[in-house]
Amino acid sequence: MAHPPLKAVTLTHVRYQKGDQLGHFLAWVSLVPVFISLGGFASHLLFRRELQGLFFAVGLLISQFINELIKTSVQQARPATCALLEMCDSHGWPSSHSQYMFFFATYVTLLTSKGLRFREILSRWVATSVMWSLAVLTLFSRVYLGYHTEIQVYAGAALGLVLGALWFWVVNFVIFDYFPAIEESKFGRMFYLKDTSHIENVFKFEYDNARAAREKVASKSD
Fold first, then answer.
1. Omega of the bond prior to 33 within 30 degrees of 0, cis?
2. Which CDD domains does the record associate with it (predicted)?
3. Which of 46, 122, 138, 210 could join 101 in a cystine, given CB atoms 3.0 to 4.6 angstroms apart?
């Protein structure tokens, strides 16, 4: 009895030529979107419950949905090298990896520039430089490893940049006015959703409040 062909789950399944050190490095770079989604946003939403982070994640999901919609409509094939990568059964235009990373880098750049103070410029510049470097490296990795053509990654990068800027405007100039209402809603209270953008130094605020709460408990036990 003939069995149907098997297909691997490709979430972290990235191929490169054996012995190619650059390819090995770029294979790890191409997994950055996975690390951001699972290690970054999942932990942030679980432990921080920040509305800005929540809507940032929603924007990335919308961006990826748009990417899949376009891919399904255009149905542009991946390069011939996809036969060796077991990727020929999926479409290539635009590149979802490039779109994800350029959306992410654009949104973070605009967010960190919001209300920027002079003493923070250097650290924020370093952070955004790292993000844009990862975005460009991810774009390059998808072509180098044979998953996409150049036009496919350029299209993904352009779409990610536009959608990232557009979603930043929607969140911070439209939805932002409703953050207090979301905080006070039954849903917001149930899941401890909050917005700390009005606090100058969140780490110091949480540190001071944690110490004050501990001292209060200690004084009651005396």
1. no
2. PAP2_dolichyldiphosphatase (cd03382)
3. 138
CA 212 → CA 50, 207, 221, distances in Å? 22, 9, 14
Instruction: Express each pLDDT in 205-220 by its tens digit.
Output: 878 888 888 888 877 7
Tell me the sheet residues that pair with 194. 50
What single letter denotes the amino acid at residue 151? I
Bridge partners of residue 50, in order along the sequence:
194
Q: Is 72 helix (H, G, I), strand (E, B) or coil?
A: helix
Under a CB-based contact definition with an 8 Å cutoff, are residues 146 and 83 in contact? no
pTM for the predicted model, two decimal places: 0.82
Which residue in 149, 150, 141, 167 sits closest to 66, CA to CA? Answer: 167
Mean pLDDT (the chain, rounded): 82
C-alpha to C-alpha distance for 107 and 115, rounded to whole angstroms: 14
Q: HSE (CB half, 13 Å, CA atoms) of 94? A: 24
